[in-house]
Please model this.
Amino acid sequence: MFKWANLFGKNEIERDILSPNGRIKYHFSLKSRHIYYSVTKNDKTVIKSSRLGFLIAGEEPLRDNLKLIREQKKKHAETIELQWGEDRFIPNNYNETAFYLTEDKDPKRIFTFRVRVFDNAVAFRYEIPPQPKFRQISIQDELTEFNIDLNSTAWKIPAYQPDRYEYNYEKNFVHDLSHSVHTPLTIRTPNGFYLAIHEAALYNYGSMTIKLDENNALKTDITPLSDGTKAHCSLPFQTPWRLIMLADSATELTTNRTMFALNDAPTQNFDWVETLKFIGIWWAMYVGEWTWAPGERHGATTEHAIEYIDAAVRLGISGLLIEGWNEGWEGDWLENGIHNKFTVATSDFDLERVARYARQHNVEIVGHHETVGFIDNYERQLEEAYNYYAVNNIHYIKTGYAGSMMLINGRREFHHSQLGVNHYQKTVELAAKKHIMLGIHEPIKGTGIERTWPNLLSREGARGQEYEGGALSPSHACYLPYTRLLAGGMDYTSGIFDLANSVKRMATTLARQLAYFVTIYSGMQMAADRPYIYEERFPEEFNFIREVPTNFEKTVPLAGEIGEYYVVARKDRNSDDWYVGGVTDENGRRMHISLDFLSTGVYEASIYSDADHAHYRDEQFAINKQTKRVSRNETLDLYMAPGGGFAVRLKKLS
Ligand code: NOJ
Ligand code: CA
Model:
């Protein structure tokens, strides 16, 4: 029941909002007409007193002269169900207080500051209703601080860089974060807490980056537009949730799904959405066998597509991505992308015929739109381009936004600016209308909107395996579960088996390529190598890829440390089978994995693990394959070589 307190005109207040289990405390205060918050867990400080508010272009800051006019409390207890993902059920249990604030001087603007405290997170947002003389606002700066111990350790990637989110993670002290970094920003405090600062439900606003300001406070830095403002908003308007996930260990952090709970349930029917595993006319381009552009070695020809559809059928994989099928890849495709045509196939590619052949063979085509960030060009064609796929029964599209900036309304804008955010959203909503599912490369980071829009099956948004061949170290995939993957699934393009290829040498072992299908979740999961590599060289290893699901019931992290290693078990959504994956950095590790997450009964374990002499540098293919019967009382002893890993399928027998 709502509790209303009559607090008209209070200028000084102190309020505690406790998590349902009482361990986390969000302290909200109104002092000298300014608002602040702080957070403790088990009575230990996590976030020290931090300021809140906005600077507004052309007006006084919405920060000073505040008083509280009303408070509204609520308790919420619910379990939400996701249509697909890493966990089917997610707790949405919190205590909420909405603080209704006004200025005690003209222009007497009003806004609500809403706080939710969960057992594993706190979240808060600003809500600005329509009001006289205040219908549009241009945010000059959001002042929200996250005042954390400066001696905390942070794992970060830099913001505002040409390759967007595609950087290696670096470990720093918080006091070194003088340049803006992206969220999720994962932090370990000196008193032993793990937290990730992120946002949920990012709509119609610049994405939040974070940096240390002149006063040594960790502060939001909302991605600016080219006109220098952060966002133009018509009222009513609410910011995304500012989310602080909290955990006692690094592994506990990896299954924090509060971001999804902060997003709304879908308002339309998405029964037609299905996760997908696919191969692609893709890696052949990376290793130089084929090209995106038409010519002698063109990849996306009718003939190759038909060959790959036949291969998908033989491999038991339901989807096929075809890149380089449309006009626009000739010459310097990054420069020429402004002319890309999304409804015109190259002369050697018969899209209608390929789509028909795929349909006859029950293979889903994954179409491809590489926009190169030329949004004006793309949006002009958007409706027609989606129709073109839809009428050909193509229901999956991988989109791409290569290029360091977007071109929107003739101006260069950041991918993660308000205009970028709005563009991505437009594609998601139009796709939903046409029953199309999306996997977005060079995306806006995940903020859980796939709860509302389940047709947004995956994103890239970090360095993926396209960076192999020198730019990825074995530790990279050991950072992801604790950082990028807190923002949702990722298309890492796993399953490259041609590890020693001279053009793209992989810094992994073979077993680790299988592990990725478990450690890196994606609603659209790619088996990224060429089919002949799977069929001719590694048919047995490929069995694991064929079997591993793309939709899980439950995820149980088993062991790990940030940037060092990660071991996780996941239960299939549609059977009693479990899958376990592990990856390690440059250090070899022996893992003793208790199988106590299994239910009772006998399971057949198919194990793919590094041999004792395996090494990502020179013994990449040294793999042990073993099948044995196990039960929940047993332990598996598995070795992960330097740059290696393992994958286990546990099939329930009885
Ligand atoms: C970068 C994407 O990450 C990759 O998957 C794609 O093949 C290229 N851009 C070309 O669109
Ligand atoms: Ca990319």
